[in-house]
Amino acid sequence: MPRQAIALSLPSPLPPLPTVPHPAASPLQTTISTTLSSTDYDAVCVPLTNPRWQERWDRLCLRPADDEGLSPAEIEAKELERELVDREADVWRRDGGLKRDEVNVSRLEETQHLIGVAAEWLELDSPDEGIRFDSELALRSELAHALYLSLPTLILPAPSLANRAHLASYARAVSNLLQLGGPSAFTNLSIRIPISDPLELIGQGPAPGAAGGMLNSAPLPPNGNANGPNEPLSNKHKRISSLSTRPTSIHQGQGLPNLALAPQGMRVASNASAASAVSAASSMMSARSGVATLAHGDPSSTWEMWDTIRAMCGYHPRLSVTLDLTNPLPPSVGALARWTAEPVKHVWLPAGSFIPNAKGYPVLSKACQAFLKGMCKQNPTFILSNTTVSRHSAGGPNAYLQYLRHITSQPISAGSASSMGKLADQIGSNEYTQGYSDYLQAPLQPLMDDLGSATYDVFERDPVKYRQYEEAVFLALQDLPADRQHVVTVVGAGRGPLVACSLRALQRSGRHASVYAVEKNANAFVTLQERKAIEWGDSVEILYGDMRTLDVPEQADIMVSELLGSFGDNELSPECLDGAMRFLKPTGISIPISYTAHLAPISSSKLHADVTAPSRAAAAAETPYVVMMSLVNLLSGEGPGASGRCGEKVQQCWQFEHPRRDLIVDSAGAPLTNSHNTRSATLLFSIPHAAQCHGLAGYFEAHLYGNIGLSTHPETAHRVSPEMFSWFPLFFPFKSPLYLPTGSELEVNVWRLCDQRGRKVWYEWCAEVYLPTLGVTAGAGTGSGIGPNGQSPALWSGSGAGGTPNGPPRMGGQASPLMDAPFSPGLPNGQGQTEGRIKIGQTSLHNPGGISSWVGL
Question: Which residue, 64, 158, 193, 396, shows the most beta carbons closer than 10 Å to its own?
Fold first, then answer.
C-alpha cells in the first residue's frame, strides 16, 4: 500500500511568537522542521489561535451569570462598564480580525506541512442565538487569517449532538464561510465529526457530553460536569449572550425547557436544565434518525449531522470530514461503511483510542485496524494527538506512530473486504487502470465512432478476458464433430485479438475450420491486413463492412464477438448480433450465448459532486458514465427486508440471448424492428443503514460457453473472471440525492428503450423510497382522521404483534415525516395482516425520451 500521511498534534506549550524579523525562522517554524526531520511524521497539527483570543471574545460577547448579591451602586457601575465593553464589541463585530498575540501561526512560511485547528470553544449551534452569531463572526475572523496565510486546511469544531435542533444554524454558518475568499479561495474546511455517539450505541439517545468539546462526545459524569467531578464548570456552561443592542428573538431558547431566569430576565442554563436540554435534543432529533435507528442497530446520528451540513452546503468541493475516533467504533460494519463514500480528509486518532497489549505497548483493536485499512484508499491524513500523556506503560510517544505506520502499510484482508471493495481492488490493482478511480467517462459509441488504436491497446492488455474467450471457443469446438471442416466467424474483430484466440483454440482442439474476421473500422482493418500478411496468412479471411449488412461467403458454426459494454447491452451488442445472426447455421453457436444486466443503489459524495459540478451541463446528471468505482458505498442489504419482499443486494434487470430464432426478419435476414430489444425492470432493495443514495451502479454477467463466463458483478467477479479489468461499472446518477432511512426499501425502475425507426437506444431510470409497515389490517390505509400522536388511523389500527389500538405498529423503517399520508397498496402476508408501506421520497424520471443521453445505431 502507498505511504499514508500521518500528522502530530503538537502538545502544549506551543512555541512563542517570532522575536526576530523575517527571513529568520520563527520558533514554530523551527519546531515543525525539527519534528519532521527527527521523526517519521509528515505534518503537524496546531490550533490557529491561543487562549488570549477566547479571553477577548468572552469579555466582548459574554456576560457572567453571577451578578446576584450586588448593591445598586455596584450594579450601576457594572452597567456603565458593560456599556463601554458593548461598544467595543460592536466595533469588533463590524471590523472583525485577530490580534498578533492571539494567534499561534503568524507567517506564511509556518504553514508548510501544517494543519490548522479552529478554536474548539466556538458554538455555531449554541441554543443561545447571540452566541451562535458571535461564534460565526469569530470563526470568520479565524478563516480570514487562514486564507491570508494560504493555510491548506482548517479543522472546525464538531457540532453538538445535544444541540441537534440548531444544527441548521451550524450548517448555514459553514455555508457562508465557504463563500469567504471567493471562488479562488485556497483553504479547505474540514468538520470534525465523532465516529459515534456512545449513548446511542447503548440505546440511550444522544450523548450530552457532545455539547462541550471538540475532542469527544463522551457522556457527562454524574455531576453533569465535563471537566470532571472536582473541577468547576467551564465558561461554556455559565455564559449568556451580551448582545444588548439585539432584541431577544421570540424563538430564543425554545429548545431549552426549564430555564432559570437570570437578573434582568436573561436566560441562564442551570445544571438541571442542561439535562432537560439533552432530553429535548433527543426528542428533536431529525425525523430521519428516529427510534427505529436503535431498533435496527444503526447508530447514525453523527453521520446524519455531517449529512445535513454537507447537503446544506451543496456538496461544496472545499468541505470535508475530519473523522474523530475518540469514541468507540459502532459495532455495525454497515454503519462504518458509510464513511467510505464520504470525503474524509483527516482521521483524528487520540492516544486514548489505543489499548495496551500484553507488554504494555499501544495497539488498536482488530475492528479499528480493519476500519483504518479500509479508509486508506481515501488517502486521509491520520492525526495523532495526546501522545505525550503517558497513557501506556511501554513504547513512549513514538510507539503510536510506529504502530500506525505498520497497520496502514498492510493490505486489508480479503475476508474483511466488502464485495464492492473486492471489485475495486481487483480492477484498481492493475497498472493500466491507475488514475481512473472515480473518474467519469462517457460510454463508447462503437457504431457511431471508430475507436482509436490506443483504446484497442488498453482493452487488449487484459489477459483474463482473452483467456476466457479462448477457453470458450475451445469448448465449443470440442462439441463439434472432429471429421468435418467448420467455420468460425469473428464479428467486430478490431485489431484481431479474438482471431488469435480462435486460432489457438483450433490448434488445441485438433479441429479444422475456416476463420473469417469482420470489421467496419477502416483504420483497424489496416491492422488486420497487416496481421494477415505477417502472422495468419491464408488461415484467416478478413472482410470489411458492417456485420448487420455485410454478406459472408458461408455460414458459421461458431460466431465470436466482444461487443459487451459495462452494463452488458449498453454498447448495442443485442442490435449488432441480431443483424449478424444470418452468419450462423441453424445449429450455430454464438459466443457469448447470453448476458445479464444488474443494478445496485450506491452512495458516493465524490461522484455526485462531479456530476453536478457547475462546470458541467445540466444534462450531465442524466447521463450514464463508466466509472472505476472506489470511494463508493453499496447501500442495499442481503436479506428480504422488513417486508420480506426485497431482492438480493445486487439484482438482475434483464437478459439477452443469442441467437434469437423467433424474430421477424426481412429478405436480407435482418430484424424488421428493434422493439424486441426494449426492456424494463422493477427492483426492490432493502436498506439496512441510513444513507444518501446518489445513483445506481450497473454491472453485467456474460455466459460465453459451457462453464466459462465474464463478470463485473461485485459478488461473483472474483470467482468467474478474477483480475479482469476490461470493464468498469456503469454509473446511473441521480440529479438530487435521495435520502434512505434505516430499514427503508428502495424501489428502482429502469427501462431500455429505442425509437420507432431504430436509430438510437437509451435508458431511463427513477427511484422511490418507502417505509415498510407490518400489522396493518386490510383497508386501513383508506381511513380518514388523525390518530394518536398525529398519525393516521392506518398506523395505529391492527392488533397482535403488528400493533395495538393504543400503540404503534411494527414499523420496518424509521419515523416518517409523512405519517398521516395514506398507505400505498399493501400485500397480505398470509396471517390475516397486510404489509403496507409509506412513500417518503422519490427521484424524477431521468433521461426521458433519451433527451440527455443515447447510443446511436
Answer: 158
The answer to whether 240 and 128 are in contact (CB under 8 A) is yes
Which residues contribute to the annotated binding site?
Answer: 456, 465-466, 519, 546-547
Catalytic residue among 562, 715, 745, 768: 562
Regarding whether 425 and 402 lie in a shared domain, the answer is no
Rounded Cα–Cα distance for residues 163 and 280 (Å): 9
What lies within 8 Å, CB to CB, of 106 at 6+ separation is: 17, 18, 26, 100, 149
Catalytic residue among 129, 571, 701, 768: 571
Show the low-confidence residues of the chain (pLDDT under 50): 204-239, 242, 244-296, 427-428, 776-824, 830-833
Question: Which of 771, 832, 839 minimizes the C-alpha distance to 802?
Answer: 832
Same domain as 55, residue 34: yes
Q: Verify whether residue 88 is a known catalytic residue.
A: no
How far apart are the C-alpha atoms of 512 and 483, rounded to whole Å? Answer: 8
User: Would you state the pLDDT for residue 68?
Assistant: 66
Closest of 562, 511, 597, 566 to residue 729, by C-alpha: 566
Residues 543 and 463 in one domain: yes
Same domain flag for 378 and 462: no
Instruction: Note if 431 is an active site residue.
Output: no
- Check whether residue 396 and residue 501 sit in a common domain: no
Asked whether residue 320 falls in the same domain as residue 394, the answer is: yes
Residue set of the binding site for S-adenosyl-L-methionine: 456, 465-466, 519, 546-547
pTM for this prediction: 0.81
Side chain identity at 510, as an amino acid letter? Answer: G
The whole-number pLDDT of residue 323 equals 97
Domain count, the chain: 3
- Could you tell me the residue range of the domain that residue 751 belongs to? 418-438+592-774+836-856
